[in-house]
Each structure stands twice: as C-alpha cells, then as structure tokens.
Design goal:
This protein has 420 residues and is an alpha/beta fold. The protein has 2 domains: 79 residues, SCP2 sterol-binding domain (Nonspecific Lipid-transfer Protein, Chain A, 2-Layer Sandwich), CATH 3.30.1050; 323 residues, Rossmann fold (3-Layer(aba) Sandwich), CATH 3.40.50.150. The protein contains 17 helices and 11 strands. The N and C termini lie far apart (61 Å). Belongs to the CFA/CMAS family.
C-alpha cells in the first residue's frame, strides 16, 4: 500500500523522481532527475505521509541516499508536502507550554552551547561558500545581476545608512559573526565599534582581522552574551543581525528591554532577523523545523513580525521603519547552496580535517546541503521571512530634530536610506 501511495505522488511531482525501496525494487521513471535510495521501511512510511523533515534526517544519518541537484530536490519537496508548513495552529495551552520550554532552552550556558554547535564547525568550511567577507546573513541585491559579494557589501552599507552612522559614534554589533558589518562600519563610517559573539572561532578570527587592519583601540570583539553587557555607557547606534532568532520567544521582552538600556536616548537600533511566515507557528511543520533544530540551529525559534514589533514597543522602543527582505534571502541562500554544491569534494576534505572523522564530515555535509537549499525554498514559498526593523529610543526632547516639536532625530523621509 505504501508503494502505491508513493507511486501516485511521484506521478504528480514537477520533476522526475525515482525511489529504490528497502527490498531493492525501484519505482519511478528511468532515468530520473532525483533518485532516493531508502534503506529502512520506517523512512518510507515518513515519506508517504509527507514528513520530509524526517526523510531529511534519514538522509543525514545514512539511512537513505540522495542523488540529484538540490534545486530539483526542493522542487520535489513542494509536491510531497501534505500542506503548507505554516498552517499549523497551536492551542492556548500548547503555546503556554512552548513559552515555558523556550525559557528553559535559552539560559546563558545553553545559548552559548547552541551557537558554538553551529558556528564552530570550522571557519574554512564556511569560507568555501560564503562571500569573501564571510557575511552569514541575508544579502541585498540592488540589481539582479549583482554578485553575492557585491550584494553583501550593499547590505552592510544599507544597514549603516539606515542607522545614519557618523564618525566617532559608539556602535554596537550584537552577534557580529566574522566581523563583516563591524569592520565595514569602522572603515567606511569612522565609528568606534564593539562587536560581541558567543563563538570562539569567530572571536579569534575577528580580533586577528582588527589587528591586521590597524584598528586596535577603535574596534574590539568580545566573547560574551548580550545580557552581560553593561549599560553604564550606552551606545549611539546598535545593530543586531541574524541573532534574535536565537533569543527565544520567552526572552523577547528581556532582549529588547536590554537593548533599550544599551541605547542612548535618541539612539537608533537596527534589528535584522528571520521571522515566521505564520502568526501562530513557532517552527515549520512537516518535520522541517525539527530537522533544523537537530542538525543546524539547536534552540532557534521564529516569531511573526507582529510579535517582534509588539515586544520591541513593550520595551519602550519606537518602530520607525520595517522592511521585508524575504526574496533577497531566497536569492542569498540559493547562491550559498549553489556554491557549496560546486565544491562538494573540497567541502568534505575540509570537514574531515576539522573533525578528524570521515563519517562525521559526511553527516555535516549532508545536513548543510539540505539545510541551505531547504531554507532557500522556504523563503521562496513565503514560509518564512526576513525583516529589518529600525527603531529608536525616544529622547523626549521636543526641540530635537530638524523640525521643532517633532520629538525625533529621525528624518521625515526615507530618501537617505537608498541614495548612494
């Protein structure tokens, strides 16, 4: 019965898919754009009910093998899903339990462990498929033909312009990664810049760059949790890029509340992060969210943009501008995926060197191949989004700004964001 159900699904897919069953029988066309060899019956059952996340887990763990381009694989995934994976709705008591679990999962020590699990895989691995600056967040494509490297520089500059960075201002970059934004802001806008990370690899790498570039004293990278930053010397401008996804729903009030305290009155905050596509789902359905949590981003939680803005406003910050860069992230992720796919042997070699274990290296590589292409699909299909929220800490000075009585230093028009 399972064989027949799956055969019926295969005939409706937008790409040709063939499956080799645990007993060795093959179903589907020959040749096929995508081939899946399943070694265990229970994986076949997960495929039949559309639990593609569980099938992905089987592939990562070697219980199934996959051949074909990742773009064709993801085209097949859309036809195998039983429903759009953001259409799940939680009962009130379920959401209450999720808040409790969220709080338990996001202590300082667990957040550090979860970040290190992801980012300390090895700098050389990420360097293979990221741009030269190793910017690991959504790029900004000013033109369709822009390269990934140019689009990432344009994104860094867009953030700096939105924040209206000025020479000498104290700038904080929360979750500074490999230092792309931190160094761009210092070199192009003359700010006094502080970055923080929980990744030992990133901390060491960025401090080496700071020294090499002669920026010691004006730029610094610290290994610490955002909650441990003191508020006695607030910053003029703050950016948080690709970080609040790791905060947890239960800690959103703490997160934005502490950013409020870290910001000077009249200062600006740019929060750039992934948001949920549905109002009530905390992760993607069909097992996709479970896959990411287990193999890629343990502890990651997505909230809808409306919830993010509510938490921001509850903390006393004023939302000034919100922009959805969802299609830009789909393009970014496909660029990353295509880059990784073009050098799988090199990636495997790097991971073997880093881990010292060929099986471990193969597991990581399989997980990242599915993760990058799967996330590209999710952004294409509007299952998730990417929002930049620009906010300020109100200064309550009725004489500030270019127009008396405006009570804001924020410009009345947005032209300044996009004029080069």
């Amino acid at each position: 019965m399972l064989d027949q159900a799956i055969e019926a699904k295969l005939r409706k897919l937008p790409v040709s898919v063939a499956i080799t069953l645990p007993g060795g029988r093959r179903i589907g066309p020959e040749p096929a754009q995508v081939s899946l060899r399943i070694h265990e019956q229970h994986t076949l059952a997960q495929l039949a009910i559309g639990q593609v996340g569980a099938v992905g887990e089987a592939i990562v763990q070697g219980q199934a093998d996959l051949d074909g381009s990742m773009r064709d694989v993801m085209a097949a995934v859309t036809g195998l899903l039983p429903q759009v994976p953001v259409q799940s709705h939680s009962a009130f008591w379920t959401r209450g339990w999720r808040l409790i679990l969220s709080a338990m999962r996001h202590t300082r020590s667990r957040d550090a462990e979860q970040v290190q699990f992801h980012y300390d895989v090895g700098d050389e691995f990420y360097a293979l498929w990221l741009d030269p600056r190793r910017v690991y967040s959504c790029a900004y494509f000013r033109t369709p033909e822009a390269s990934l490297g140019q689009a990432q520089e344009d994104k860094l500059d867009l953030i700096c312009r939105k924040l209206m960075l000025r020479p000498g201002e104290r700038f904080l970059d929360i979750g500074a990664g490999w230092g792309g934004l931190l160094l761009w802001a210092a070199e192009h806008y003359g700010v006094d810049a502080t970055g923080i990370t929980l990744s030992h690899n990133q901390h060491q790498y960025v401090n080496q760059l700071i020294e090499q570039k002669g920026l010691t004293g004006r730029v610094r990278m610290q290994l610490c949790d955002y909650r441990d930053l003191g508020t006695d010397q607030p910053f003029d401008k703050i950016a948080s890029v690709g970080m609040f996804e790791h905060v947890g729903r239960a800690n959103m009030g703490t997160y934005f509340g502490h950013l409020y305290q870290l910001l000077q009155p009249g200062g600006l905050l740019l929060n750039h992060g992934i948001t949920a596509g549905g109002l009530n789902n905390t992760q993607l359905g069909a097992g996709l969210g479970d896959f990411i949590d287990k193999f890629i981003f343990p502890g990651g939680e997505l909230i809808h943009i409306s919830s993010a803005i509510r938490s921001l406003c509850d903390a006393g910050l004023e939302m000034l501008d919100t922009e959805n860069l969802r299609p830009h992230y789909a393009r970014t992720l496909w660029d990353w995926s295509d880059s990784l796919e073009s050098q799988l042997d090199a990636a495997k070699a790097v991971l073997v060197t880093q881990s010292g274990n060929e099986n471990r290296a193969e597991t990581i590589l399989r997980a990242y191949r599915l993760y990058l292409s799967g996330c590209a699909l999710a952004f294409e299909q509007r299952w998730v989004a990417l929002h930049q929220i620009l906010a300020s800490r109100p200064d309550n000075d009725m004489n500030s700004g270019s127009m008396r009585g405006a009570q804001t230093v924020y410009p009345f028009q947005r032209d300044y964001m996009y004029a080069r």
